[in-house]
Design goal:
The chain has 118 residues and is mainly α. Helix content is 75%, strand content 0%. It holds the Pfam family CM_2.
Length: 118
Amino acid sequence: MGRRAAIGKAAFLRHPGAVNDPDEPATDPQLAAFRRSIDNIDAALIHILAERFRITQAVGRYKAQTHMPPADPERETRQIARLRQLAEDADLDPEFSEKFLRFIIDEVIRHHRQVQGD
């Protein structure tokens, strides 16, 4: 390798934000700040999902006790339409939000069926 190539490679390896090892944190302060914000949001999402599932599990137990079906397709349709509109208002892809919500709804229904012994 020529001297110029070696210098270029060394400069790249020292460049702020250059990641040589995928397990190494970025050294670029702006990228690190972005990532801290993303990590905080991810943590909040996990806690919000955990709380949502605690409530839907209580709903599942209630439905089992009162002999209600585990799924409510009419409510699901209304919820998806409502959340698609919220996504559009928030400049979030409504297709993505619907897929995400459908995934959650399907998991909730699976839990409700388990509680009812289906």
